[in-house]
Write a structure and sequence with these properties.
single chain; 164 residues; mainly alpha; 3 domains; two-stranded antiparallel sheet; 6 helices; 4 strands; binds zinc ion
Length: 164
C-alpha cells in the first residue's frame, strides 16, 4: 500500500485512482498496529487473570478455603476471624520461647484446625524448632511422671517385697 501512495505522490498522481473512504480506513500506520496488538495482549492477560481468580469463595491468591464442617466443635458463642473470613491466610508471628519471626502458613493452619482438630481459638505460638523441643520436654515429663506412678503402685501392693 505504501508503495502505491509514494508512487502517486511522486509522478503519476492523476492516473492513480483515488482511494475511497473504506480503503483509507483499512490502512493503518505501524504505530496504530502496534497499539492494537498491545491492547489485544492486555485484554488477553486480563481475561486470563480473571479465570485464575474465579474461585468458589472470593478469596485472595495464596489463601486456603475454610471448611467449617471439618472444624472441631466449640462451646464458645464467638466466631474466629478465619471462619468469618472464609479462608486461611499466612500469618506471621513471634516465637514465645526464642523470639524468632516465623510464618504460620495458610496450609499449616488448615491442617491444624481441620485435620489435627486443634481448638479453633488456638494459634501457633512457637517456631518449628522450639515446638519440637517443647514436644520432647513434655514427653520426657510424662515418662518420668508415669515411672513415678508405677513405682508408687508397686510399693503399695501387699507382698510386693518392698516395704515403705
Ligand atoms: Zn522458637
Amino acid at each position: 500500500m505504501s508503495l502505491i501512495v509514494t508512487h502517486c505522490r511522486q509522478s503519476v498522481r492523476a492516473t492513480c485512482a483515488p482511494m475511497n473512504r473504506t480503503e483509507i480506513k483499512k490502512m493503518k500506520s505501524n504505530k496504530q498496529r502496534r497499539q492494537e496488538i498491545k491492547a489485544q495482549r492486555l485484554r488477553r492477560v486480563v481475561k486470563k487473570t480473571r479465570a485464575v481468580n474465579s474461585r468458589p469463595v472470593d478469596r485472595p491468591v495464596g489463601t486456603v478455603e475454610v471448611t467449617p464442617i471439618r472444624l472441631r466443635a466449640t462451646t464458645s458463642y464467638g466466631i474466629p476471624d478465619f471462619v468469618r473470613r472464609g479462608y486461611y491466610q499466612d500469618q506471621p508471628f513471634r516465637c514465645k520461647d526464642c523470639g524468632v519471626e516465623e510464618v504460620w502458613t495458610a496450609a499449616q493452619q488448615r491442617w491444624w484446625y481441620e485435620v489435627a482438630q486443634g481448638d479453633v481459638w488456638t494459634m501457633a505460638v512457637r517456631c518449628r524448632a522450639c515446638r519440637r523441643q517443647e514436644r520432647a520436654r513434655k514427653a520426657e515429663a510424662r515418662r518420668i511422671h508415669l515411672e513415678g506412678l508405677a513405682i508408687k503402685r508397686a510399693q503399695s501392693l501387699p507382698g510386693s517385697g518392698i516395704s515403705a
